[in-house]
């Protein structure tokens, strides 16, 4: 007896596209997808999309021009070549995806830089109006000084830029701490200004005057520390550096709540 034969399914041949108009439409769709999907993804991951207009009329015009450009390029490269729509689409999507990614990154970085510049200008104006001056960077490192121990310069470390924030009232400086600590946080994002600051509560010519004033301020600002920079002595708030926005905010809070006139010291 012969075994029953199984029915073999018939595979339909893939539809090939060769018409120039179809090539242009496929390339146009690939270009629009490449430039629109990254921005749409960023919009969907935002918690409050009502405050964001991702697809402005100007951006839509650029999207249309970009899609038409990619469609034209695909039409030229694949003119007379019979391929499936899927093959043509992925071929058209390769290079535009890279170009569109760079385009979106450039636009985001440009907008972020403008926002940073506006905030920097606003913070500077507020500081000037409130009398918060900015002191130039010191040529010598800042070293913590103490009344009950002599710290050798060899055991001290310079204040270095730090991205950590130190809100008013958090006591960072402990009795056992001898140096101003630096804490570099990993940040792979765009960084437009790495200039960091410390909030200076007072400047003195002698160590004794600085330590005497420090003893008075400790009741109001527990994390205040006295530092030495060459022949000059200062009292600064906290033992970590801040960006200009945070430093100015803390300086304004100290001025209005304690009646002091603090200043900002640039730490490079």
What would you note in describing this structure?
The chain has 268 residues and is an alpha+beta fold. 44% of the residues lie in helices and 13% in strands. The protein has helices at residues 20-44, 57-77, 85-129, 207-217, 244-258; strands spanning 134-135, 143-144, 196-204, 224-229, 232-242, 263-267. A six-stranded mixed beta sheet has the order 1-6-3-5-4-2. The longest helix has 45 residues, at 85-129. Mean pLDDT is 75; it is low at 149-177.
Task: List the keywords.
268 residues, six-stranded mixed beta sheet, 5 helices, alpha+beta, rod-shaped
Task: Give the gist of this structure.
The protein is 44% helix and 13% strand. With 268 residues, the chain is an alpha+beta fold.
Could you give the topology of this structure?
Layout: H1 20-44, H2 57-77, H3 85-129, E1 134-135, E2 143-144, E3 196-204, H4 207-217, E4 224-229, E5 232-242, H5 244-258, E6 263-267
Parallel strand pairs: 1-6
Antiparallel strand pairs: 2-4, 3-5, 3-6, 4-5
Helix pairs in contact: 1-2, 1-3, 3-5
